[in-house]
Each structure stands twice: as structure tokens, then as C-alpha cells.
Specification:
The chain is α/β, with parallel strands linked by helices and 283 residues long. It is built from nine helices and eleven strands. It has one domain: TIM Barrel, CATH 3.20.20. Strand 7 and strand 8 form a beta hairpin. It is globular and about 50 Å long.
Length: 283
């Protein structure tokens, strides 16, 4: 390891210990998606012209480098990660290096994909599926037709293969019946500790749809996030509005080498906060 990279290990460990940053690396695998969700941070949709995907080899190498630099886990999101045909194999390779969570809308689990994901059994990896309501109509109103049925069908198919499943609920309506939703995910074998609840962030398409709340400074823990558009402060940062990438929370227009992206991340003013409350369970 170079002196520069070694310095970053110590600096990063200190920032994590002080609670200024998280020890998870985020990868934005692609901006392409099979859905057009009303609150999508990146305005992803099936006919997006600029799909902007991270190269699979780059993702795996970034995770190797992240492990050497002291990162403890990985989150992978999009877009819809399984729009990338190679993603099941990429996910297995990444999960063999660090504990991993991959976010998905749950609609693309074909037999081929499930067969390739069997290698995740026994690894510290979870697939986090989006489920916003126990009611199919309410769930699909902001996401798209058929989402509820696909997710409810996917959960047991994944669990039968020994793959851990988490459920993420994005709360749009203040009167959401979370009790009924919790009853549903428990019946599918997903325990309460694997159920994530978060509010809509007013970035991306949510701005146009007038949904959610503004993301204030210090509202979320900084976690280095790599995308095809560069490196960002956290996974709510690389958003798109009216087709234009938001750069207010971009820390570098490069993603590698990772120790340089980490140096830019650690020097960002919003990673210097100490003792402030942050919402850590947003993803």
C-alpha cells in the first residue's frame, strides 16, 4: 500500500470513529430502470437515453480497494441494478469481498437471475426490495403496475435459495398503514430488523411531483458514493432534475483511484461535523 493510501486508512478510521462519516461504500450501478417512480432520485425510467452505468470490473476493483482502505460494507443501488445483465455475477464477486446490500424493485428475478444468485447463499449479502404498502393499489400508485405482486412473489423465491431479503418502505402518505405492512413482511419471513422505513427526499423527480422533504445539511451520514458521474457525499446526493445531474453534493468528477476519491470525501466540509444528530437509517 502506498504512503498516500496508508494515510487515508488512518484518516478514514478516525472519521468513522468520530461519527463524522459512515464506513459503507455506495455504488450507483446504473441510472437505467424498468420503472418510472414518482419519487425517483435520478429520474430513471425504461427509455432513459443516458443510462450511465459503472463498469462491472471497476465496481469489483473499487470494493477490493475499499476493503484495503478500511470500509466495512457496500451498498449498491440505481436505477434498477438488475437491468445490467452481468449484475448477478458482479454482486456475487462483491459480496465475496465485503458485506453487501443491493437495492432492487424486485421485478426482474427471472429463473436465470435466481440461478446465478444462488451463490449468494452463505455470504453476508442481502437484497433489499422496495415495498411501500400492504395494499397493491396504494403500493403501485407511485411505482407502477404490478410492483406489489412481483415483490411479494420474489421474497419467498429468494429466501428459498438461502438469500437474505430486506424490505424498504418509502413513506409517501402520512397515513400509511405500517402495522399492516409489517404483518405482511413478517408473514413472508422478513423480520422487523430487516425492514427499513424512510421518507421521500425532495430531490430528483420528487421535486417536480412536489413530494417529500428537503434534505438539510447534516440530515444523513456522509457515505462515499461512486457513480458514472463522479464521487458524491452520500447516496441521496447524485440526483437528477429535469434531466440535469445535481452537482451540489458532488465531491469529485472522478471515481478512482479510490484513495483519491476518499481523500476528496474526507476533506469535504460536510464530513467535518462532530456531535450533530444524523439520520443513519435512510438506506
Amino acid at each position: 500500500m502506498s504512503v498516500t493510501a496508508s494515510d487515508q486508512v488512518a484518516s478514514f478510521a478516525g472519521a468513522v470513529a468520530e461519527g463524522r462519516v459512515g464506513d459503507r461504500l455506495w455504488l450507483y450501478a446504473t441510472y437505467h430502470c424498468n420503472l418510472t417512480c414518482s419519487y425517483c432520485l435520478t429520474e430513471s425510467h425504461p427509455r432513459i437515453a443516458d443510462r450511465r452505468a459503472l463498469d462491472p470490473a471497476l465496481m469489483v476493483q473499487s470494493v477490493r480497494d475499499a476493503s484495503a482502505l478500511g470500509f466495512r460494507s457496500v451498498g449498491i443501488t440505481g436505477g434498477e441494478v438488475f437491468m445490467l445483465p452481468s449484475f448477478p455475477r458482479t454482486l456475487v464477486a462483491i459480496a465475496q469481498i465485503l458485506p453487501t446490500i443491493a437495492l432492487s424493485n424486485g421485478m426482474l428475478f427471472t429463473d436465470r437471475v435466481l440461478d446465478e444468485l444462488v451463490l449468494l447463499a452463505g455470504l453476508d449479502c442481502a437484497i433489499q426490495l422496495s415495498l411501500d404498502s400492504h395494499d397493491p393499489v396504494a403500493n403501485d400508485r407511485f411505482r407502477g403496475p404490478g410492483c406489489f405482486d412481483h415483490v411479494v412473489a420474489a421474497i419467498p423465491r429468494l429466501r428459498e435459495r438461502g438469500i437474505r431479503v430486506r424490505v424498504a418502505t418509502t413513506v409517501v402518505d402520512v397515513d400509511a398503514n405500517l402495522d399492516a405492512l409489517c404483518t405482511l413482511h413478517r408473514s413472508l419471513g422478513v423480520p422487523d430488523e430487516d425492514h427499513i422505513v424512510r421518507s421521500v427526499v425532495r430531490r430528483g423527480r420528487a421535486v417536480s411531483e412536489d413530494l417529500g422533504f428537503d434534505l438539510e445539511d447534516g440530515a444523513t451520514l456522509p457515505e462515499l458514493t461512486l457513480t458514472a458521474d463522479g464521487s458524491f457525499l452520500h447516496p441521496f446526493a447524485p440526483t437528477v432534475h429535469d434531466g440535469v445531474i445535481d452537482t451540489d453534493l458532488r465531491i469529485s468528477d472522478r471515481v478512482g483511484p479510490l484513495h483519491e476519491a476518499l481523500a476528496a470525501f474526507l476533506s469535504h466540509e460536510q464530513t467535518q461535523l462532530r456531535g450533530s444528530d444524523v439520520v443513519r437509517n435512510v438506506r
